[in-house]
Every structure is written in C-alpha cells, then in structure tokens.
Amino acid sequence: MNSQEIRSRFLKFFADRGHAVIPSASLVPENDPSVLFTTAGMQPLVPYLLGKPHPAGKRIVNVQKCVRTGDLEDIGDNRHFSFFQMMGNWSLGDYFKIEAILWSYEFLTSKEEGLGLDPSRLYVTVFEGDDNAPFDEESKKIWLSLGMPGHRIYPLGAEDNWWSPGDNGPCGPDTEMFYDMNGTLGDLSKEEFTQAVKDETVVEIWNDVFMEYEKRDGKVVGKLAKQNVDTGAGLERMTAVMQGKQTAYDTDLFEHIFKELRSQITEKKELSEEQRITSERIVADHLRTATFMIADGVLPSNTDRGYVLRRLLRRAVVNADKLGIMNQELGYICTQGVVNSYVEAYPELEEKRTLIHATVLQEENKFRETLKDGLKQFEKGVDAFTLFTSYGFPFELTKELAEEKGIEIDEAAFREKFKAHQDLSRSGAEQKFKGGLADTSEMSVKYHTATHLLHQALREVLGGEVSQKGSNITPERLRFDFAFSRKMTDEEKQKVEDIVNRNIEAKLPVQNVVLNKEEATASGALHFFDQKYPDQVSVYFIGDSLDTAISKEFCGGPHVSNTSELGKFTIQKEEAVSQGVRRIKAILS
C-alpha cells in the first residue's frame, strides 16, 4: 500500500465516522508564537483543546505537516526525519476512550476500510498509575473486550504513557499500539517487549491521548469538565510498516527524491556504503524539509526560522559534495524530486515551484562563497570550532584540509566544544520556543491582541504591501515580522505607535465570529494568503461590528475582550530580518 493510499484511507475512515476533514496548518504557527515551527499535530488545535469551539465541529481529522530540528546530527539513521506528517483524529468534548480505542484498532486491522495489519502482531501499553492518577483500568478493559490478550497489554509509567504540555493545562494517560515488524516474536514478557522496542524489532505505530485531568503548578488537581481525545500516527513510520521496510527512507515517500538525487551525481567519490547512505539520507531529508518550509513562507536568514532553513540547506550542500553532485543542482532535486512526489497531497507546492528552486539555488551559491571565506580563514590558522561557529565551515572539511597539510586536529576537543555549544543552543531554544501548548498567560494574551492592532497600524501607515511573516510572543514583549521593502523612518514608527495607543484608549470591543472561508475572505479579514484553511474559519475583529472593525484577521485566539485592557504600547526597536522582511519589538506597560 503506497503512502497516498494510507493517507486517503485514514481520512475516509474517520470522515465516515462523523469527522470533518480539515487541511494541514502551515509549518509556520499562526496562533502559537511560542514555537518556531509546527512540531505536532495538536499544536494548531490548542485553542480548541482549551475549550474554544472548532468551526468544523467536535470531531475532526487531518494529516498535519510537522518539523522538528533538535536532532539534526542523528539524521541519516533509520528513525530520524526533520519533516514528518502526523495523521490525527480528534474529539473535542465528544467521544472518549471507547470510541477512540475501538476505531484505532479497527483502522489498523480492517482489510476493507483500514490497513489490514495482523492483530496477532500487535502489542499495547497503558498507564500504570502514580501519585497523580490511578492505573488506567478502563483502557485495559476496552482492549480486552476487543480480543487483545491480557499478557500483551503492558502497564508503563508516566515517562511512557502520560501526556502533559508542561506544569499547567490539560493532561492525561495514553494508550499506545506497537507492531512486530518481523512477525516472528509472538508473546513477550514486559522485559522482552521493552528490549524489542529498543531494538526496533517492535515499533510504535499509534497513540491515543486522553486529556481528562488538569494540572496546575506541576500537580494534577482534578478532572476536566470537557474531555478531549488526541490520537496520532506518523505517516512515515506507518508507510514503512505497510511496505515491510525498516525505515521510511526505503518507501515511496523518498523513492523519487533519491532517484533525482542519484541522477545528479557526476563525480564518483570514494565513500563506504555507510557513508553513502548517510549522506544521501541527509540530502534527501533536508531538501524535503526545506521545500515545505519555503512553500510555507520561510526564507533563509541568520535568525529563527530562516536560520534553521539556512542550516538545513548548508548541510545538504556539504553532503551533496561528498556524493559528487555538481554545483547548482539542489534546487532541481527539490522541484523535480520533492514537489513532484508530494504535489498530489499538497497542491500548494505547484504554486511555489519557481520560488523553491530560486531560493535553494541562491542559498547554495551564497554558501559556496562562505566556504571560500572559510578557506581563507583556515589558511590564517583559525581553529576548527571558530571556523564552524563563525564561518559556517564544516568540521569535516577542516579535518580533510588539515590532513592534506599534515596538521593534526584535536577532534575530541572540537567535539567537546561543539557539544557544549549545541547544549547551550538547545537550552535557549527550549526556553524561547518551547513546544506544546501555547502560552495563554494574561500578558501573552494581551500581547496577542496588541499584535493585531500593530498589524493594522502598519498597513495604515506603510500601505497594503505590509503582511505578517511571523510573530513571537512572551509575557514580556511582542515581536512581529512583516513584509516591507525598507527601513521605517522615526516619523513612521511614531505614527504606528500613536495609532495603536489611540485604539487602546478608544476601549474597542474584541469579538469573534465563525464564517465560511469565502465570507471571511470577502469581509477583508487578513490571513496568510498562501495557507490552506478549513471551510469554516474563526475571525477575530476589533470594533463594534465586522463591517466597521478597525482590525479583522483569521485567528483562533485567545484575546482580551476590550482594547482598554492592554495599557500603553511602545515600540522598542525596528530592524531588518532578511531581504524584504522587517521586525518590530514592542512592549505594553
């Protein structure tokens, strides 16, 4: 069964059970400024998991694009991907454990409607209980009623079978499904099962999360009045299982990418088989991720999302060189390999084909100039760590050049410095762009509303060329990126600040309405024009009515109820982010 059929069967199975099919949200989070990218299927649905009614109803299903880049150094093995697709069905205060588990099992095992997996190769885990919550006996009973043998249901602790976004918010137990990849293991003790998972002879293929508790300050304080179900299955892993492969790199998800990649090899390089496989996977993975990032509006830069994209493309260039792929062919691999493979599922890729090619080509050329600068610095005796962190010069190249000149590189010292640098960067990223539920503290909600006022004021002062390119909000400040071709004057910044404060002082109501997509667009509500939206969308507007509102945008919230709650708005800084993109940092006091 190919990946497209798995995707289609999944969506149809749950649509037939009353779920509205919604499109994947953008990789650039629209309503969650706490993260750089959409990292999980639940992330775009945070407002609805917190109680806001979803325009499509209480049952929804989708396949969500996701990006995670915390483990780039591990890419090249069987399990790690920087881009992946998460199949998920959701109950927002509707059905709960019985239906969720039943439908998970049916989809996995039904030959007519689902995937037709062998039930005798399935294993299940449930939450064993702790001081926060008891053993999830209900889930075990449901599994037993479906014919799952009791000795194949393993109780595990919170580390494995409890979901929580952090110290506050909805949380709860989960039940996970695993599959014997070889079909030869049979019954396993708990210890044997745990080892088989580590050895990857048994792999997780599905997860049902039951949000039934509320956590405050790290402790469960009781049950939620409205219980949600969040289920998920990775399309990459499921495709590998269905096609009998150890890794998704060997499935149709990558088949055409590798074909185009290998067709561009013009110089035979002396590599071991392991080196060749690793470099091919790095190039294929990174170009796939870069293609989807660019299609969702991310461009290379030295900060935030743009920096992640730049790093992916640079690693792709280095590994393409190792494989003997000639200069300026990575853009071709993106458009012919990636776009052609995924355009059926994501038609928006066709519209961005030219942009993707041009962006990758330009970035590749820039990096090759950087490599030349790195060579000059190497000749001056600059150490390997500085070459890497300051000039983007890959350590492998430094090592090769040093060997040619008979210079010995202290690799252990470099690795130690690099690990410290990596840990520091990762720690900062976790603080600045933590995953999970968006920050819904009082000040963050105020800044979210202030961002709408800022967007409107910028368009009023600078014109319609202004459009949002991203935002980042903390309880201390807002940061807003927008398309504009030049630096703002001091007079323009003052005008924007005055307009925002005038609208705060006007004590305008902040209201919400759900409209069909065409009505919402016709109303003039601002949105990300290259993003796909469901048929019903949420629009927040500031003013007495939608027609007379001073600001209206597609948005899931949350917001204050009146602009008078915001306080005084002050612009602290306006600066360039990348070509054609500016950034404003501002505070409320």
CATH architecture name of the largest domain:
2-Layer Sandwich
Average the pLDDT over all residues and give the rounded result: 89
CATH topology of the largest domain: BirA Bifunctional Protein, domain 2
Number of helices: 19
Shape: globular
End-to-end Cα distance: 58 Å
User: Based on DSSP secondary structure assignment, what is the total number of beta strands?
Assistant: 16
The figure for the number of domains is 3
Rg on CA atoms, Å: 25 Å
How would you characterize the largest beta sheet?
9 strands, mixed
Are there runs of 5+ residues with pLDDT below 50, and where?
426-437
CATH homologous superfamily assignment of the largest domain = Bira Bifunctional Protein, Domain 2
Query: How much of the residues is beta strand, in percent?
Result: 15-25%
Identify the CATH class of the largest domain: Alpha Beta
Task: Explain what you see.
- With 589 residues, the protein is α+β, with helices and mostly antiparallel strands.
- It has three domains: 3-246, BirA Bifunctional Protein, domain 2 (2-Layer Sandwich); 251-380, no CATH class; 442-588, Threonyl-trna Synthetase, Chain A, domain 2 (Threonyl-tRNA Synthetase, Chain A, domain 2), CATH 3.30.980.
- The protein is built from 19 helices and 16 strands.
- It has helices at 3-15, 46-49, 97-109, 137-145, 158-161, 190-199, 235-242, 252-263, 273-295, 304-323, 330-342, 348-351, 353-379, 384-391, 395-404, 411-432, 442-462, 490-505, 517-522, and strands at 20-21, 59-67, 83-92, 122-127, 153-156, 162-163, 169-180, 202-216, 219-234, 468-473, 478-483, 510-516, 536-542, 551-554, 569-578, 581-588.
- The longest helix is centred in the middle third of the chain and has 27 residues, at 353-379.
